[in-house]
Amino acid sequence: MQTKTIVGYADQIVIAPGETIAFKVSCEPGVADYRARIVRVVCGDDQPAGPGLKLEPFPAPAEDTHKARHQPIRTGSWISVRAGPALARLESVTVQAMIWPTTVAKGWQGLLGWWSEPRECGFGLFIDDKGQLLFAIGDGKGKPALLVSGKKLVDRAWYLVAGSYDAATGQTTLIQEPVECFPHVDDAATVCATVAKNYVGRPDAPFSFATILTEQGGGAVTAGAMFNGKIDAARVANRALDRAEIERLRDDPAAPSLRAAVVAAWDFARDMAGDRIVDTSTNRLHGTVVNTPTRAMRGWAWTGASGDWRQRPDHYGAIHFHDDDLDDAGWATDFTFTAPQGLRSGFYAALVETEGAEDSIPFFVRPPRGQATAKLLFLVPTASYLAYANFREALDSENAEVMTNALSIIGADMMYLNDHPEVGLSMYDLHTDRSGVAYSSRLRPILNMRLKGPLWQYAADTHVTEWLEAKGIAYDVVTDEDLHAEGVDLLQRYTCVMTGTHPEYYSTPMLDAVEAYIHRGGRFIYTGANGFYWRVAFHPDRPGIMEMRRAEDGSRSWIAEPGEYHMSFTGELGGLWQRSGRAPQKLVGTGFIAQGFDMSSYYVRKPGSFDPRAAWIFEGVGKDERIGDFGLIGGAAAGLELDYVDRKHGTPPHTLLLASSENHTDSFMIVNEEIGHNYPTTLGRDHPNARADMVFFEMAGGGAVFSTSSIAWAGSLAHKGHANNVSRITENVVRRFLDPKPFAGA
Description:
This protein is mainly β. Strand 11 (132-139) and strand 12 (145-152) form a beta hairpin. It is elongated.
C-alpha cells in the first residue's frame, strides 16, 4: 500500500471564471519537492469494473514543480482576550468561573487566566495532572505560588471554581465547589495559604480560556494543555472577594456592591453566532474564539424551562471546548490557479505528486456569476461532503463491519487519517471527550473527498458527470454554498436541476430555494436518497464552516444533549427537516426509510409506470425487465440508502409510483424515526417499507419532479457502456425535462 506523504486543501471550494483559488500543501519531512497540475474531472472512480478514471489535463500556470515543506496543524479550541490596562493594573485579584470538565484524567488543562507558562508569571486556574483544581500566581521572578485543591474533579459535573489573592496581605484562597453533592464523593475543597505580597506579574500573553499558553516572543503564543469541557460565568475582580461575593459576582456582575471591583464579566450567550465573546464590564475585554468551540450549550443555570437559547440566554452561557476542535488548518499558500475566461463549468482538481505518493484537491468551476452556460444544472452536494469530511468509521467504530456486512478496507488515505488525527473530524465522529462533533470545516485536508475514493459522496457523484459527458448533455455545476448564498435566483436560470447521489444536509435558504424552484415550474431530478434530511447552518461570517445538531430523532452516530438542539449560528432548531414539518416527501415525493451496506438490489415496474403521464420514462424498457440488476455499488441500482413514498409525510397525492426495489437483505434496516417500537420485523426481507420507490409528479407552471430514491442508482449508469435500462430511464427523463414543452395537466 502506498504511503501518503503529501496532502493539501484549498481556500475555496468553488470559483467562477476570472477568480483565483489558493492551494495549501504539506509534505512529510524528507520530501524535497512535488509536482502540481490542474485537471478537469469527468470521472473520479478508478475501479476496474467502472468507467475508469477520466481526467482532462490542460495547460495552466500551476503546472510546475514546487519546493516541499511540512505545515503543522494545531487543534484545540480556546479563547484569546487582549490584555488591556484593566488587567495590567491588577495587584489583588479574584478569577472565577463555572466549569463542567469532561476529561479530568487527561492531565494538565488550562481553564482561565492571564498566565505565561515559561515565565511562570500572572495568575490562572488549571486542572493538574491528578485531575485537581490548581490556582497559580507568580511575578516571573521566582517560583510561583501553587494552591491545589487536593480533591479530584468529577467528569460531567458543574463546579464553582475560584482563586483569589490579596496583594497587601498575601492571603490566597482556592475554591472548588460542586453544584451538586453526592454521598461518598469527596470533591469539594477550600484551600487557603499566605504567599508573598505583590506577587501578580504581567505576562506578555493574552488572557486565555481553555489552554495554557507558551510565549514565543514578539507577542506570538502557542496554545497547549487544552481543556475539554464547558466554561460558564467567567469573571475577574480587582480584589480578593469573599465566598458570598464570589457567588454574587457569578449571579449578578452588575450588582452595585461589586461594580467597582469588576474587571471582566464575560457573557458567552451574547454574539452567539460569531467568533467574538463579550465582556459586559465597562472595560470591554472582549475576546475571540479560536478553532470554533461549541456554543449554544446549556450552562450551569439551565433548568429545562426552555430548549431555545434565544428565549433564555441566561441558561446558555456555556461554551464547550475540545482539544481536537479545528476550523482552519491555517497553512500558507503554495500555489494559485486563476480560472480563465471561458473555462467550462465542472468538477476540477489540483493533483499534487511526489515520488511514490499523490493527493488530489477537488474544487468546482461554476459558470460566470449571474449567468448560465447550459440548460441543465448539476447541484453538487458539498454540504454533505462537509458533514462526512474525514469520517473515521472504519478506524473508530466498533460497528463498521457489522453495518457493512464486510471487512473494512483501510487504504492510504485512511491510514493518513489514522496517523494524523489533527486533520479534524466529521460530523459523524466523537470528540476525545465523547461529545458529538457539531461543526465541520473545509479549510483543512479532507481525505475522503478525493479522486479514486470510495463510492460514496464525491467519487459516486462523478458517475453522474461521466454519464452526462458520455451522453453529450451539456451541464453547469454549482455547489451547496452557491445555493445557500444565492437562493432560487440561481436555480431559475436553468430548465432542469439535477442532484448528486446523497444531498443529505440542507440549510434553510437551500431548502427554500429548491422548494420555490419546483413550485415555480422548475424540473427537478433527484438522483439519490437520504436527501434533504438534516438541517444545517453556515457560519454567518466565515464561509466553509457548517453547523449541525443531531437532535430529537433520526439515524444518528451521536445524540445531542437535551436543551442543545438549537444551532448557534442561526438559533434554528436542528435535527431532521421532517421534525420541522418539511419532510423530503413534500419536496421530492420520497424520503429516507432504510439503509444497508452490503448488497444492492433491483427495481420492478409498478402500475404507475404504464400511466400515460409517465409511460415515456420507460421507452425502450421492457414491461417485465428488472431495472438495475447490475451496478458498481453492491451489484445493483437500489442500495446503500433508500427512500419511499409516504402520504402522511407529504408525498403529493398525484405522485405516480413508477417502480420499487425488492428482495433486500436483512442488513437493510428501517430507520429510527419510522419505528415506534422495535420489533424483529424491521429488517429488509421482512418489512414491506424497506424499498426504494421511483416516482414522478408534475407541478403547476409546467414543472415536474423525478426521484430515483437510491444512492446506488448512479453506480449503474455506465454498465455495458451506458447501454442499460438505468441509463435509458435517466436519459429519457433528462431529455424530456430539458424540453420546455409543458407536462400534461401541469
